[in-house]
């Protein structure tokens, strides 16, 4: 490691320690970390946030407006973090295909989709820069992520928000393995973010380790929403405050043996939920923001298919989860190779969600030039 990287590593480490110290020791310390040159804004107090009602669990039906001016102020920018691996790259190309298709095919619909950025945290450009709008972020210095590459996500967002002029007032944080089923409206309301509730994010269950980063003075543990950073639609100004805290809490959690053991592969998701709560940004929880095959079998009103789980079935259409099926689609089968065009369709009886997923992947790969290169 060169002297530059060593110095940078020390800065990150010291920053993490300082932020964690402030969170734990000083209940009144401001956690607003404005970026250089930005003006400080007054945020809602944690006391006020704690006294607010819990977020509703439904899809809003009153967000569309005939006012073009209002529509413009509600636009969100979609941002996806990615490495330069084949695994992340093919997913990003499929996702961006559907993002573009929905915007092109539905120019006058009531969606609020603005621009798109792939935040590439490899530290150097790749050959898909012309295909997908891309911001190149620097990865964490060697050893800082401790083998947990996801820690590069909050650091990449910090760099992007610092260094880029973003026209839209809102940000949708998404992931490579998201496929947009239909155009998305801005689901956030009244300064709150819009987020998907994950059943495995359980602040009450893990109150003891979480209190190291969210002291009792900040309010009840229920102020921490059961969310990750994605999918989340949040105000740009709010995210500029949340992102540095998200980064530092992630690093501090990873260095804490109790938190690291408790949160495991979803540590960075807990860190975002904590950071959002520390800044008094509550979230409206949208159960139908996305579906996750094979457990969610119908598309319903969902906007996103998240294909994080493998889909395994026998030839009679019966799911064989935990056992490789006679028919399967699992993104992990393509961690080092490109998925082929025209993946075989699942057998009769397989749920709509899985059938739709494969159809959408096939359509994308059939229409993306130079697929597999």
Automatic annotation (TrEMBL):
One of its GO terms (molecular function) is glycosyltransferase activity. GO terms for cellular component: membrane. This is Hydroxyproline O-arabinosyltransferase-like domain-containing protein. The chain crosses the membrane at residues 6-25. It is found in: Membrane. Keywords: Glycosyltransferase, Membrane, Signal, Transferase, Transmembrane, Transmembrane helix. Its main location: membrane. Residues 76-371 form the Hydroxyproline O-arabinosyltransferase-like domain. It is a single-pass membrane protein. PANTHER family: HYDROXYPROLINE O-ARABINOSYLTRANSFERASE 1, PEPTIDYL SERINE ALPHA-GALACTOSYLTRANSFERASE. It comes from Buddleja alternifolia. Residues 1-16 form the signal peptide.
